[in-house]
Every structure is written in structure tokens, then in C-alpha cells.
Structures
1.
Amino acid sequence: MTTKTSAAVCIDGWSGDLDTCPVRQVLDRIGDRWSLLLLLTLKDAPHRFNALGRAIPDISRRMLAGTLKTLEADGLIWRSVEATTPPSVTYGLTARGLSLIMALGPLVEWAFAQAPAILADRRRAGGAVSGVAIAP
Amino acid sequence: MTTKTSAAVCIDGWSGDLDTCPVRQVLDRIGDRWSLLLLLTLKDAPHRFNALGRAIPDISRRMLAGTLKTLEADGLIWRSVEATTPPSVTYGLTARGLSLIMALGPLVEWAFAQAPAILADRRRAGGAVSGVAIAP
DNA sequence: CTGGATCCACCAGGATACTG
DNA sequence: CAGTATCCTGGTGGATCCAG
């Protein structure tokens, strides 16, 4: 979502730049490799920096720090620093972050319900499409 | 989502590979630059190939063709070929594609409702986080 | 322990040209 | 009209080293 665009459509009649469409911006954020995963990890309980790293073993420290910063800038998570030595930083969900997770609920259910069928279709891709058409 | 992972967490206690998590797969698909846009364009009515290109001016033919193929392989859209000369190919939503759009509804509403506040927070990023914390 | 800074590999995706 | 093939660039993100 870095390229300049000039499309006049997006969603629900959104008629501005593609890059200013709210839905696009949200998907750009949670659609990346780590944001959603972090949000869902923090849903259960606040975590410290390295605890998050352990909960998501394959994230690099760079992406962990960067993604957390972005999520905080968006007000989706909070960050609390204990000025001890060594320092201890804790992250947790904000109300806004929680509301996002709630809004994701139906999508999550859909994903779990449809995943097997989609994977089956994808496997025999190239053949006829199996989905029932809305229009002929 | 091309990198091999071995994480043991994902969503709702999903305990397989990150890459096999249904929600990750769905987000990988609709989170890309064009899929959701195409789905929403097709929601209103079926479109022909070049009509889609005109509805979304800044998509390249390569990405248009590629994204359509993937969406079809996942059974989210159907593809109908008229063997005329010149050929005419029409795309439209399947029932599954429509159900995905429905599942996206709450997220879309959330995005529109939260976008202004998020952008405001993002602008003065670096300052204190404004979201109300769930936990202190 | 919690990051920032830097270097670099990889690949998604745009431009262009060509085919059925 | 509806794609496919090829080349090439720029951004994403991993690895590594450094700092508070």
C-alpha cells in the first residue's frame, strides 16, 4: 500500500484514494505477517517483549519491535515500561484492539468453516469451479 | 506466508503450523493488494476481464489475471468463457465468495468507525497511547 | 532485557511485448 | 479481447551488531 493510486472505488461506495480507504488500511495492518498473531497472543493476557518472542518463535526481534510499535501507534495495544534493571516492558490489548478482535470474529469462524473446502478446491485447481454461482 | 514456520500457536488454540492456520490463509488471500477489491467489485454484478481492469484502474493485467485465477481456484469466484471471436470471459461471485464478503461485514464497519481515531493516534504517534487499557 | 541501526536476500508486483 | 512470458525494480523482512 505504498504505491500511489487514483482509483475511485473501494468499498461500500468509498470514493477516495485507494490508500485512504479505511478498510484497505485496516487490512494492510492486520494482513501482515505478525500483527494479528500478536493481537491474538495479547488477547489472553499482557506479555513482555521476550515472552511474545517465545510465544511466536519464528518472529525476528526486528519485526517484533517494529510491529509492536505500529500497533501501539494505532492505539491497538498499550506499552508499559518498568524502569528496573534490566528494564521490563509489558504489552497488552487496548479496548480498541479488543474491539478489532471482536470484529474479526465472523471472519475467523468463516475461515475455520471454509478452510477444508477451499483447500480441496485449491488442490484440484484448474478444473471446474465448484462454488455455486450467484448468477449464471 | 512463504517462509517455513513451526510455530505452535495461531488462533483459537490452533496448534498446527502457522502456514496451515485457516485464518492466516484467509488473511493472506484477501489481505493482498487486489483480492478484496475484486471481490467487492464483483459483488454488485459480474464483470468481464477488461471491465474489471477499468473498474480498478491501477491494477496491472498481470495481477488482474493472476488474482482472478487464484480467487477462482479457491472457489470464491466463477469464470465463464464465451467462445466467440473475440472471446468474452465473465467473472462473478460464487456463494462462497459472497459468504466471505458477509463475514467481512463487521470488520468493514469497524474500519469505517475507527479509521478517524486511528489516523489521529497515528499522526501523533510516539506520544502516550490513548486507547483505554484493558489491564493497567 | 529491550530495543535501534545497518546490511542484504528475496520475491511480489509493475512495465512491456507477444500469443490465441 | 483475454490472457501469458520475460525482465526488472523496490519494499519487506531476516541476520547481525550495537546501545541504553
Note: Chain B touches chain A through 77 residues (CB under 8 Å).
2.
Amino acid sequence: MTTLVDVAKKANVSKMTVSRVINHPDKVTDELKQLVYQAMRELDYHPNMIAKALVNKSTRIIKLCILEDIDTTEPYYMNLMIGIAKTLDLHQYSLQLVTRKNFDIGNCDGYIITGMREQDVEWIRNLKKPVVIFGENRYGFDYVDTNNKTGTYLLSQLALKKGYERLIYVGIDSKESFEYSREAGYLQQVQEKRMMPELHRFGNHSHFAEEFIRDNWKSITNNTAFICASDRLAIGIVRGITRCGGKIPDDYGVTGFDGVFLNQVASPKITTIKQSIIEMGSACGENLLDKIDTNDKQGALVFEPKISLGGTLRD
Amino acid sequence: MTTLVDVAKKANVSKMTVSRVINHPDKVTDELKQLVYQAMRELDYHPNMIAKALVNKSTRIIKLCILEDIDTTEPYYMNLMIGIAKTLDLHQYSLQLVTRKNFDIGNCDGYIITGMREQDVEWIRNLKKPVVIFGENRYGFDYVDTNNKTGTYLLSQLALKKGYERLIYVGIDSKESFEYSREAGYLQQVQEKRMMPELHRFGNHSHFAEEFIRDNWKSITNNTAFICASDRLAIGIVRGITRCGGKIPDDYGVTGFDGVFLNQVASPKITTIKQSIIEMGSACGENLLDKIDTNDKQGALVFEPKISLGGTLRD
DNA sequence: ATCTTCAATGTTATCGGTAACAAATTAATC
DNA sequence: GATTAATTTGTTACCGATAACATTGAAGAT
């Protein structure tokens, strides 16, 4: 490996000048800079990040903490990691995957946290390194997420435009911020149209949604659309309606949210919100690295949702 | 952060002695060792891996190269990563996720490679750091995998025991080693029973398998079991048989392979080979770290397959 | 012309460890 | 008991970078 000294010798300057060309180029004359650049190119010089890390007392490690149960893991996370890793690699940082159990083993320069619950706020506040949360939150942490409210707002709007006359929201029975936002999107659309809101909440499993349909089938009038907080629930609703003999999308409409995993195997495909998790992961990484560099708050980064048309709404 | 010097002062020895207690404990008297251990405990000393890496000219980074198309990514890889990360974290290594495009950016101490094809053998051979392949191969690389042959052998055996009289193998149309092994398992079982082998191969998509059933439905006699090389294919076969009016598991049996992803949403659940990818990932990590430490070949690590009973075989 | 001032470059010490060599202590040999 | 060998511990230099301070040299002020 070529080092600073090799470059310095070749360019006939001190190694400090080379270091400065890299880190404070404005403090070096153009003449020397050219010499140094030339030498770096000829020797194919790449700075040794380990040495850098040693003097900076940094680690070049970012921890990705997945706080949700690993059993429920979906490709979602895989895409997230791919996105994060892409950015980090570019900046010569590396990603460490940790869970609740082992998150405090070893040092790092920053955290990306996903699956945060209320109970986690405390210890996250106490972390001494920059943090970015993946998933919206109302505790003031910087975060990256889809605009959840706009998502359900748009889907509700679309359902109405397709002529469904009744809109039932099927939500997740949890106190998390994203759920409130998705409900809010539905509510706003419904209120704008002066309709009666109808909300139901279940654990995020398809069979809960399916049971709900079965148990209430007679009260579910024709021409109803279900705005679901997740693809899982949407699939349950579809299954329930189908088993009860209802016709999708002619008599009933269904929309989901997420569009990562289940949509690949579902039949018919759910009309849902497509999230570009990879892109969001990259954003997460960049957000965090900026934060590390500048030591500044970066604020939230909200991605505008895109509808992915499936076969569960008319047309 | 407490350093070697802090510990050395507290224990009234030179820092070199402390270093030796950690790395060559046999070269230090028990008396001093106790003093040093005591001091380390009191100061809660943890070695600085960055400094270590600098003098050892190592990086403490392991690259996980996923060579398959990211689009086809399944939770499979997520589990793999969790397994690998678990081991690496324990040894204070960190994992870097790379793909074909960016695999040579930045240094590392070793590679774990998955999704290897024949075309990759060349450059993998040329890598200068230790390598472990995830997935069996016949090029002499160390690897970790399920015993693929035993897997299909056992499933075939089970199908016969359940009384199915005809066994059709549905394989993946690719030249990869795992496919050959799965075929071999089926063949061995069939030959032991002096039956006529019947093999078909398709791209690894459920609709190919489904079409196959439709196109050949009249020649598919009752009491046939399909030994499939993947859950995807198995799901296609199930769908095909169901659509043609066949009854599973009464008149037709189906088995898959993998049991990670699709099995969660399939209905009925496929009888398949369950692979503990997390565990295999850990093994991968340990294998590689051993290799880095000893600079030795570690050989293959083959996990014995376990059958996961679903509803696609009788009983 | 001399003294400041400031910008451009070089020197030295440092980050936290380890290897290689030096010194000190103990044990072994004659 | 003196000499040598072996074991244990300490000293120094180094890994590859950067910060802090020192030096040089040219422009501007008096």
C-alpha cells in the first residue's frame, strides 16, 4: 500500500503538505497541489482509513439497530441495508448490524435505528453518537420515512375517484407514529368529502383482517373500499371478501401500504404505496454522515409516496 | 476511553506487559497477570481495535458479496446477514455489504461470497484475502451449505413412505452445484427403490412449474409426488395441480426446498427442507475468522437438513 | 531599508497499540 | 562460585495519518 510518505517523496514535499491537500486544499498553493495530485494518481494512493480513524478517535462504523423482532423480518430490511450500505461504502464507512441484545458491544460513530418504540426513547436520547431513525417519530429525532399521511390520503382519494362510495380504514393496533399518520391521511380525505369515517384496528396479521370481514360480512355494503395500513392487512381483507363471495375490484376495493414483500406473491396484486426502501436507506446513510461531519441536526427527510397500481381497485 | 497505558500505570508495569497479557499470556508470570487483569477490570478496559488494526495492517472488515441480482433478494439473505453479523460482532469485526459493482472499493480482511456462478471462479481465485463461499461448490473453495443431496434424498424417501408410487423431480434449469446435488439425492433414492427416474428442469419461477402441470396434466397419473428443487417451483406445482382439479395431498404430493420465505404465505404449507440460515451464517463467520487467524484452509461445513412438515404430503 | 504581518510549508508529537531488540533476573552448567 | 543460557520485563521504533507549533519567505507599513 502506498502511504502519505510515498506520495510526499514523489512530489518532493513534506507529508504534511500531502495531508493538507487532502483535508484542507485551500491552504496549499495550486502549484504544489498539482504536484501532489499527480503523485497520488501515479501511485494510486488511497488514504488509510484505519490510521485516520486512530487520530480522529473515530471508528468508521455505523450501527444499524433493528429493534423489531427478527422473526418478522421482511426483505424490507434487506433493502434498507442495501441502501445504507451503498452510501456508507462510498464514504468508506462500514455497517454493523445489531439487535437489542448486542447493540452496545463495541464502539461506533453513529446509529441508524429502526423499529423504535416508545420504550426506546429513553436510551436513544442517551446515546452519545449521532442518531437517525428510520421511520417517523414525534420525539424530535431526525428521521427518514415515507410521507405516511399523504400515502393514505392519496389512496383514499383514488378509491373515491374510482367510484367506491364507502371508505373503511383498517389500521394497525399500535401506538406508533406512522399508524397515526396513516389514519390522519384517511381521515383528512374522508372529512374533505364530508363522509363518515369508519376505523378499525387489529394486530398486523392477515387473519385478523380476514376474520373481521367474515364476522361483519352482512353489514359490509356493496361498493365499499378498504384503506388498509399494511399489505398484510390488505391481503387478509381480500381473502375475507373473496371467501365471502364478494367481487374485487368490481364490488369492493382494497388498498394496502408498503408494497415490498407480500405484493410479490399476492394474487391479485394489491393497489398500495410503493416505498423505495433502498433509496430511503441511502438517504438515511447520507443524513447520518452529514450529521457526523457537521455535528448538526439534519431534520427529517420525508419521501413522497407513489401509488403502485394493482388489481384491487377498479379500472 | 482507558488505554493500555492507563492499565499499565495502575498495575505498575510497562504497557508492553499489558499488551502481552492480552496477546501472549503464556509469556507473563501469573503474578503480573493477576495484577494486570485486576487493573483491566477496575478500569473497564477494552482494547482499541482501530489501533490494533493499524499495527497489524488489518481492517477488521469482512465483506459479504451478494452476487445474485438484488431484485431476487429474499429474507434468506437477511437471515444470513444476521447470522454472520452475530459472529463478527462477537469478535469485533464488522460486516460490509457489497455487490458486483462495488466489491473492490476499500480493503478488508476476508470475504464471504454468496450466489457464486461459474464465471466468478476466476476472480475469486485471485482474491488475496481468505474467502468462504455460502453455498456448495466444486471448485475447492471452502463453503458452508445444507447437505443438498441428503435433503432431496430424505424428502423422496418420505414421499415413498407415504405411499406415493411415482416420483417426479422438478429441478432448476441451472448448472449450479446445489442443483446437481439435489438431483443426485432424488436419483439415489429412486434408484435404491429401482424406480424410473423422471426429471424436468425449469427456470426458478412458480409459473413455469404451473404451466408444466397444465400442459401435461393428462399424463400425470394419480398418486404421484413431485420432488421440487425449490419452494418456488413447489408452489407452482401445487397451484397447477389445484387448478387442474387434482387433490393435494390425497392424490398428489409435493415437496419443496428452502423453507424460508414462501412457506410463510403459502397455503397449504409446503413440506420442505428447513434451513437454519442464521446458524449457517454464524458458521460462515466463524469459519472465515478461523481462516484469518490461522491462515489455514478450513474445509467445507455441511449442515444436515431437517424436514419441515407441511400439508403437501399425506398424513 | 527595517520591522510587522500573514500565508505557505515543514517539524515534531501524538493517537493506541505491537514487534524487535535490550536489560534484568533467574536457572543451569561446569 | 563464575559463566552461560533461558526466562521475564522494559525500551524504543513504528504502523499511517493529523494537530499544534515552528520556520520560512514575501508583501505591506513605517
Note: The interface with chain A takes residues 1, 48-51, 53-54, 57, 59, 61, 70, 73-75, 77-79, 81-82, 85-86, 88-90, 92, 94-99, 102, 105-106, 262, 265 of chain B (CB under 8 Å).
3.
Amino acid sequence: MPPYDPSTFPPFAVTVDLVVLTVRRHALCALVVRRGEAPFQGMWALPGGFVRTDEDLGAAAARELAEETGLCAQDPAAPAVGNGAHLEQLGTYGDPGRDPRMRVVSVAHLALAPDLPAPRAGGDANSARWAPVGELLGPGGGMGRDGEQPAPLAFDHARILDDGVERARSKIEYSSLATAFCPPEFTVGELRRVYEAVWGVVLDPRNFHRKVTGTPGFLVPSGGTTTRQGGRPAQLFRTGSATVLNPPMLRPEV
Amino acid sequence: MPPYDPSTFPPFAVTVDLVVLTVRRHALCALVVRRGEAPFQGMWALPGGFVRTDEDLGAAAARELAEETGLCAQDPAAPAVGNGAHLEQLGTYGDPGRDPRMRVVSVAHLALAPDLPAPRAGGDANSARWAPVGELLGPGGGMGRDGEQPAPLAFDHARILDDGVERARSKIEYSSLATAFCPPEFTVGELRRVYEAVWGVVLDPRNFHRKVTGTPGFLVPSGGTTTRQGGRPAQLFRTGSATVLNPPMLRPEV
DNA sequence: GTGTTTATCGTCAGGAAGACGACTATGATT
DNA sequence: AATCATAGTCGTCTTCCTGACGATAAACAC
């Protein structure tokens, strides 16, 4: 740590970028916006923006999330309310060449949201959409069908998205985070379809049911039932107080 | 994402801070340096410094690590060489008030090193030392003995250290990262004492031996034996090619 | 009613982990 | 030299968890 003069530090721009994930029609999807200006004009990118001078990093991410989706970042301690989303810091990307205009350090955040109506394009984004991660990342990282060509993302956003997807995939193993993809009340089958979409696998409904209902504090029955998935009525649950899943849910091999 | 003029972005200083952990005398220790200037002059702090204009974040962390300890950051792909340490990004801390002089965003990194000789103070640090995390964080986060008063760290470094310790504690559960605390060749007992120091628990030597030697690719025998721990000679191992531990090593309850 | 879909309960075999017993090979002590 | 203390290594036994899968239940479509 060499001595420094605080007035001569090298200046950086600091932004937040968002990996907003949801599950739509049995597929893991990410929110992307079309860039309206150079560089990478017309390409898809992750939503994001500058951190303001007196704003915390998490607050900047929550603000961007609200601007782009109308979602309210969820305090992990508070009970789930409508339109609340899980938000956590993902990682920071600061390669000197990642933005051709200037030195930008981007603090990426990961948000998990239940299925929403149409995304609303905010600010300068010409349009916004939910894109299946398989389309954005290709078969490798996104586990899309073979042969699909990934639509390239601006900047290093493909890498950020890949890291975010991997974080989500691994974190639902040992936490109750998968419920962040569900509405406040959901069935065991709906939760199972979240795991199936995020991991790209098929799980045994009976073993899954035994696992999630047998873990104390993971799910609490809300009393009601629903038939919105067809078939026999299913019990409705809310997320319980347990945030960690021990032993974890095991991701099937290959 | 409002439209912006790249020449009017709010300027930030970007630093890297290091949580360097090692195991010394059966205790998890962190590298701290004494601050030689205001603010927090005379207090202990995590080592760190400014990111240079054309330097990647990871490169800045590796440079600071080398300056402070002489350690060489280890490429995860390369085989272990002498004086190599594991280095990974931990998280980014950018609260507007965390540095009273100016707006500083710090990208914290976590480094795990084998037991070293005396730390060498680099640059402007009056001195540097390995401090048991229990002394720095108190009984809660650091699992120190009850009644100890934590020696406060400068800035928000106690929080950063706590996050780093928690990362290390959880990551050795499901990865071969604990071997980063060991010399290139080590015994099963030495590896077990690493787990015991990091977790602050006592593990059954027989079950631990069965677990680590029964996981394919985790440890490879190097052929030699040693009696440096006393008792019956123990087989020496190197870190194997397996980087994940599945099923994970279970941290005992409470 | 019959078939289809989804939910839920039960059974059984195999594997992993915690609790320990037993034995081995060193150096230190008497 | 005999004994002791220390650490390493191999087994055993019980318990818990998981994966595979049979069976039943309750809705809807026709």
C-alpha cells in the first residue's frame, strides 16, 4: 500500500449490471435490453447504469431493478410481499478493456424474480425482453438445445450472465432461493418445475415432494389448495423460515 | 438506464483489499497491517491499495498480495508450485461513507496461504502480523474464546474479514480448497487440522481419513512418509485433480 | 364412465456418515 | 529394554438419506 494523495487517485466509473432471472414456460430466462447507443448499438445487454455519488451499491442495484421491472428488492429478513425479488451481489468486473470508452468497473448483481407480465422497457432502452438463457449463452453454459447459436451480448455481459446463472444453479441446491422464482403461494409441483427449469433436468415428483416437505421450516402450508396446474388439487405453501437446506437438494449427475 | 455523457460520470476511487488467511498453531489467522496515516492511524487494517489505471482487478489483488507477503497468486489451472496461494474475488464494498476522505469502492479478494515465516511489512505499513481471527472479530464471527474483546479494524474491514472467513469456512466443505492452507506435500492429519482450525471443531480422525482418501481424485499419494507430527509415520499426499468434493465434507452442527 | 393429468403416500435397496473398537509404528520416558 | 504417549490406519455397526418405483387420490375432458 504505497502512500497516496487522495486527490490524485485514478478515477473510475462504477456501474451496476443486473442479471435478472425468472422462469417462464419451463425455461430459465434472463432480462435483456436492447442498446440504443454506441458502443454495441442494437445489441442486447444486461440492464444497468451508473452508481450515483451518494448511493450504496445495493441501493443502486435495487433502483435499476425497479426502473427496469417494477420489482421491489426484497430484504432477506422481511417476509415475502407482492412483487418482491431476491437481490444479491454477484461479482465485480473491471477488465481495463471491457468498455471501449473509459475505465468502467461494474458491480454485477443477481436478481431472482417470479414470472412477470411483459417487461417494461425503462429509460433509454429501445426494448426489453425475457430471453431464455440457452439462447443467450449457447448449449454449454446455458444448456440450450444443441445447434443453437447464441445471440452475442454487449460488453462482457455473456460472462456476467453465465456467472449469474451458475450462481443461481448452485445456490438453489442448499438454500430456499428457488422459492424466489415462485409467487407468494405455490405448490410443490410448481417449485419442482423451477428446479427442473433452472437445472435443465427432470426430477422425480415423489422424491422431490418427500424432500421439500420433510425438511423442517422449509415450506409452511398456507391452508389453501389449487388446481391451476390441472390434475388433483395441490396444497399451497409459503416459504418457511429456514433459508438453508441441509442436507442439500442434490443436482442429478449429467 | 438513463442516457449518459461518458465525460460526466461520477468519479470513484477503486481499491482492492485482501483477506489473507492462513492456519498457524491450530488457529485461523488473517494478515493485518498497521495503518501509518489518517484516517484510522495506528489501527490494524486489511492490506490493500489502489487499482492502477490499466490493471485488471485480479491483477491488482495479486500484486498487492505479492507486495505484502511475497506470495504468488496461483492460477487454478496450474499445478501447485512453491509459495503459491489461492486467490479469488470475495465481494465489493462501496458504502458512500466507508472512507471519510472520498468515495472509495473496494473490491475485496480472499487469499488462502500455507503457514508462512514472518510476514514482511511492505510499503508504508509500519508493521504487519498474522492475527487470529477470533481476536479480530470476537466470539461471534470469529469463534474466539468468550470474553475476548475484538480489536477493532479500520474502515469496514471487520465486515470484509467476516465475509472472507465465512467464505473460506463454507467453501472448504465442498471443494479441495483446504489444501491451499497446506504445503505442497501434506498428511491426512495435517489436512484434518486445517479443517479443525477453520471450523473451530474437532473431527474424528478415522472418519476424516475415510472421507478424504475415499474420494477419488481428491488426494494423490506422493510416495513418501513423514513423522513431523510425531507418532506413527504418515503417508504424504499432494492435491489431486478433483476440485469439488461431492458429497461435501459435512461441518458438524453447533 | 373412461382416460388423462397431477398430487401424495409407501416400500425397498444401496450408499454415506457418525460413533467407536482395534491395531500399528514411531519417539519419549522410565 | 520395557513402557507410555502420540498419531495414523483399517474395520464394524447403526442410522439416515436418496434413488427407483409401485400404488392410490382427486380433479378435468370427452
Note: Helices of chain A lie at 57-69, 133-142, 157-174, 188-199, 205-214.
4.
Amino acid sequence: MNTGDDGPAGAGERSPGVPERLLAAATRLFAERGYERTSVQEVVDAAGVTKGAMYHYYASKDDLLYAIYQRLLTLQARRLADFAAAEGPIADRVRAAAADLVHTTVDNLDDAVIFFRSMHTLSADRQAAVRKERRRYHECFRGMIEEGQRAGVFRADVPADVAATQYFGAVHHIGRWYHPGGELSGPALGAYFADLLLAGLRPD
Amino acid sequence: MNTGDDGPAGAGERSPGVPERLLAAATRLFAERGYERTSVQEVVDAAGVTKGAMYHYYASKDDLLYAIYQRLLTLQARRLADFAAAEGPIADRVRAAAADLVHTTVDNLDDAVIFFRSMHTLSADRQAAVRKERRRYHECFRGMIEEGQRAGVFRADVPADVAATQYFGAVHHIGRWYHPGGELSGPALGAYFADLLLAGLRPD
DNA sequence: GCCACCCGACCGACCGCGCGGTATGCCTAT
DNA sequence: ATAGGCATACCGCGCGGTCGGTCGGGTGGC
């Protein structure tokens, strides 16, 4: 009934709807100027609505930020589940998951920038929820590396936890320097990153 | 006679001095709560002075933040110069520089956290100055990797730029998860990180 | 040796502004 | 008639920054 329909003045165009437009505007502005330096007024102006509309759909500015976190967490969790359930040699699966993480990060650069810059502005309980979800992601990835260590295809003299943390750090940092449209595409970067990870884990 | 002497003009170094206390308090609070969520009043309260004192030594809150950046940049530049001027096999020098970067980061965790979280709050020209300094650091490190590639001790099928960027990202992220006093010491973490970097760069 | 003077260090009360958030009501579709 | 979707006007607060004033010790003239 109301899923595909949108409000104002006929359904002639596929207009994204007010909540989605607010979320998109907030994502762009938060990534560009930072959460604290972006006023609610600027967000609603960019979305073409007023504060009344925003506070109709979101309880607070913090709520808007949390919606961005939820969107990225949901996406990551879904992708991770796919790779965890896949079959094949463990080294290939780790490589695919590592490259895909880079690919996904490049495709959602704004989210990635916001994620690691504005975590401390979330309320304590929401921050804990985000950390919990991230921890699940981390432990699943680490588990794949440990599986490779047990199988003997990865070196075991470096803790899987350290290797996973190092790689995640590098990926999280992508949002700080990567510019889409440059000479390095997302998949190409993912291939390089995954290659360096796998080579680093190769036994002597 | 001069043991009781304190103050900025004296040679005695007993008391840290008001500017230093302000910088230390700001560093701790900015790292803990974030720059925007820390008021000037909180900083001066933690330093045991008043706003008048702070604005006597620092032109603005932004100026206080920039002082933190300058301190870290100076430290990093000095250390890198030492490793660049050192002698010995290039692989050993890269390993030493990589491990030292981790060590230094762990020893200045608050600075590291602030560095990559609050860059966007600096004024445009100061942000450019910081980026320029960081770029010099990056290019020096990249140059060492390229030297190893030319010497044949590092693989050349991955750009040195990508390898350096990946490593720096991992190091920058340390401030988000590392807790001093845990079971993993700074030097131990540095050894693991450098080991993974060197192994990733090892030729087939 | 003493006083008049001065200057930097620092205090604390104050200001204007822009922020996040709210109350209320109109408009349209059902 | 009713209810949700959204606009408009408004509020109180806490922020970064300012400014006149105080205090103490160094300095030069006599």
C-alpha cells in the first residue's frame, strides 16, 4: 500500500521519500563537515524540508546519526554472513572476504568516515550496541584466520587477533584518503589489500 | 636559591607551567570526550586555571588543538629523520621504522586519537599544514619501501604507496582499541605489526 | 636603600549568538 | 471527522570569546 508510494503531488517520479532524503543529506554532511559541526538546520535545508519534518521521523540528532550506523552495520553483517557460509579453501575465503570489505568500504565512503570519527558522540548504550555488532564481525573474521592457522596455510607465530585488527585498521582508514574517480578503483584496491594480508600470513 | 624558583623565565623545571598544564589537560579531555564535546571551561578547570589564563597563551580553542598537532608532528618528524639517516640493510631499516611508529603511537595514544578524529575541525590553512607534514612522512616511508623494491628484497607487484598507506592506516587505528596495561606491550605490538608488513612485502 | 612606575600573568564576570529541541496549527487524504 | 505529515515560530541554554581589573616582582632615578 504505502511502501512504494510517496507523498507529495502524485507518484510520477521515484522520489526517495522524506526520511530517506534526510538520511542521505545527513550522511553527506556529517562525512563532509563532521557531526558536531553540522547543524540540524543545514541537514533539513539540504533535504529540502524543515525541522518539523525531521523531528517527526527522528527523535533527535543523535537518532539520525544512529540510523547511519544501523544501515552500515546491517550491510556489513549481511555480507559477512555470506562469506562465512561459503565453501572452498580457507585462504580463498579469507581473501574474498578481505577484498570485499575494502570494496564495500569504498562504495560507502561517507558511512565509513562517519563511523570511526563520530562513535564517541553516540549515547553510551548505543555505542555499546555498535561495539557489540562490530565485535561479532571481528571475531568471525578472526575465526577464519585461525581456521587457516590450524590448517597450516597461515603462519601461527602471529596472533590472528593482531592480524585481523591490523587489517581492519587499514580498511577503516581508507575513508581518510581514498577519492573515487582516481586511478585506483575499489576492486583494484581490495585486491592489493587482500594480497598484502595473505602474503603477510603466508608461512615461511 | 633557585630551587624554589618557578615560572617560565626561570631555569628551574619543577612546576610544569601553566601553558604545559593547559596542553596536557586539553590532550586528555579531547581524547576522552572529543574536541567539540569538551568546553574551554572544562579544560581550564582541569588545568586549575581560568579562561583568562588560557586565552592569554592560546589565541583560541582551535589554537590549543593545533598545538597538540604540532607536538606530535614534531616528534614524528624527528624520529623518522633518525631512521632515514641510519645505515644497514633496507629491510632492517624499514622494520625498525615500522616498529618504532607503533611504539611511538602507543606512547602517545591520546595524541593519536585526537589526530585522526579532529582533523576536520582545524582551520583550512592549518589543516593543509598538517597534511603537508604528514605527506612528507608518508613519502619518506614510501621511499624506503621503494628502495627495497629496487634492491629486490621487497616484492614489486604491489605499489609501495599502497603498502605504506595500508600500514599507516593500521597504526592510526591503534588508538581506537589499544589499552595500555593489557597483555600486549607497545614493543610487542610493534614487532607483530612490523613482522606482518615485512612478510607481506617479501617476494615470492 | 627606597620609592614610583610598569608590565606581564592571570582572574572572573559578562556577552551575543547559534544551537537542539518544542508547541501549535494548517493541509491533504481517507 | 479524523489522523498523520509537515511548516512556522519560538525558547532556553551553554558555548567560545572578551574586557577591565588586580597582583607581584623587576627596574631605574636619586
Note: Chain B touches chain A through 36 residues (CB under 8 Å).
